[in-house]
Amino acid sequence: NAGMNQFKDVFLGREQRSYTMATSCQKCVRAGGKHNDLDNVGHTRRHQTFFEMLGNFSFGAYFKKEAIDYAWTLLTRDFRLPSDKLWVTIFREDDDAAEFWVSGPGVARDRIVRLDEKDNFWQMGDTGPCGPCSEIHCDLGPAASELGHTNCCRDLESRVHAIRPRSRRPSLTIT
User: Fold this and answer.
1) Mean pLDDT across the stretch 83-100?
2) Hey, what's the torsion of the CAs at 26, 24, 91, 142, to 10 degrees?
3) Has residue 174 been placed in a domain?
4) Which domain holds residue 65?
5) Which pLDDT does position 167 carry in this prediction?
């Protein structure tokens, strides 16, 4: 959430910026978290006390399809992660994301895992910006298997997309 916080008013339509794209690199110290991540430090490969969070943001310059293509290109071409080790998670109701993962980078449907709101619906808090998200995981295990769940030590979360933020109102309606 810290990476998005500086752009909250832009996503809510209260502020205009002179640019339509931005990137960030944040040094993060884990001192808690919305999912009690601090309790996982030392118990999983992916929960560290210090990490650097990269972010890229679009304010109308590109949308979900392009974000998916950019992420896949970065990981497979630029970082040279093997595509046969990558799995994708999406919000269970996000059929557009599923189709974009298949039609864009060509991810096999059986490597796209639909998860619920707890795992693949990003939100800053009880109210405010929110929306379905998609994650890319790299299977670090020696044998092919189903992704299972993101808390498994076999996979490394390498990319998260909070795509097309919406807004949750105090009445809990999403616009």
Assistant:
1) 94
2) -60
3) no
4) 2-168
5) 62
